[in-house]
Request: fold
Amino acid sequence: MAKLWDKGYRLDEAVERFTVGRDYLLDRALVVADATASIAHARMLGHVGLIPADETDQICTALTEIATAGSVGAVEIDRSDEDCHTAIEGRLIAALGDIGKKVHTGRSRNDQVTAATRLYTREALIAIVERGATLIGALLDRAAEEAETVMPGRTHLQIAMLSTFGLWLASWAEQLLDDMELVLTVARLNDRSPLGSAASYGTPLPLDREFVADQLGFPEVQNNVLAVQHSRGTLDGQIVGALAAIAATLGRMAQDLIIFSLPEVGYVTLPDELCSGSSIMPQKKNPDALELLRARAGVVDGWAQQCRSVVRGLPSGYNRDLQDTKEPLLRALSAVEEELEVATVLVTRLEPERDAMRDALNAEVFATDYAYRLVEEGVPFREAYRQAAADYREQELPKPQEALARRRGTGTPGNLNLNAPQERRAHLITTMERLSERHSRALHTIYPGGEITTVRPATGTAAGETPNN
Ligand code: ARG
Reply:
């Protein structure tokens, strides 16, 4: 379709290629979300009397058809369209003629793109929390199984004190619970309706912003119309920052597993089907998935940095720079969802080598226990420390299970207190389910015929293929 801003001249080809960039490809992921927000906007225009009711109905029906096509990747966006907003309006006008030309009343692509992105992001974050809760559940289940599996605990990567594989597993569950709280926080920031802010300054039309927010399941409108644009790249940076926290946790967990699964260490075996081979060395069984989890921590952090760098120093109001935070956001959303899925497979299927872990318990592991035994006999700690340093190697090693049983403090290897993270996980799931129900209710409001139940297209889009992966 002709450009929305067409004024009778042709954009220079090099400038067009540069300014559109990959946006027309990325926008395939946003087609359904954009059509969804457009239905809410069109209903609002009808509600306040800016377009007649029968025309509203025709627009909504045509947009539902576009959303349905978009959900299977069947809405093409040409580079000359610039973006999904233009492609969708073009289809609408092709279907309805002049009536289609009314949908853009009272909005700008600037509030349109953030509305679509926020709907898409809401759903993607729900999926991430869902997958996060699954991984946390797997870690806690395995932690319960391995609560008595003694192993050396390490600091500085050197042998430190008695630990258990259960403590190790549950520790990552608890870190992920923290990370997921960040995700819920950014999900809340994301959950404000930008529509009605138009280009950055609102419009003189009697738009009902609350009506639109309500239709789309946003609990509130984003109040200040100028702040809508200020939050665009900023919010993207915050969202990707929260995702980077998850990626960092998974990367660190993966790093430990790479060490644990070294043949020389042998605490953990990774089943063959989770490892790749070498094209030259026949004996090789490589933990590539773990290595890429480690690498993605840096990659996702780079995307967060990209968002923050793009907005740094921008003048107020919309600037085209903001287009450049879309790709890191979309990529981070799909990458971290995928990471959580893979991490769950690895955690569920890894095989702990309990004997190897127990056999690794040496005099170093128990040196501090020995010092504390002396303390319990009345020796002041600093003296006990010196004596233990001098002769811990000559002491008989305690029975590991007895040493473990002496650790009763909350959250210690002898008392994992898994109820605490289990409760946090239950709370996380309840919050996620509430958000998910609100999202589904909104989609049902927009599509009462049940045509669309997800704004994230399944195929042929950035989420599944080409631009995102
Ligand atoms: N693709 C653009 C973006 O992501 C859409 C908004 C264009 N607005 C404009 N004033 N050129 O920001």
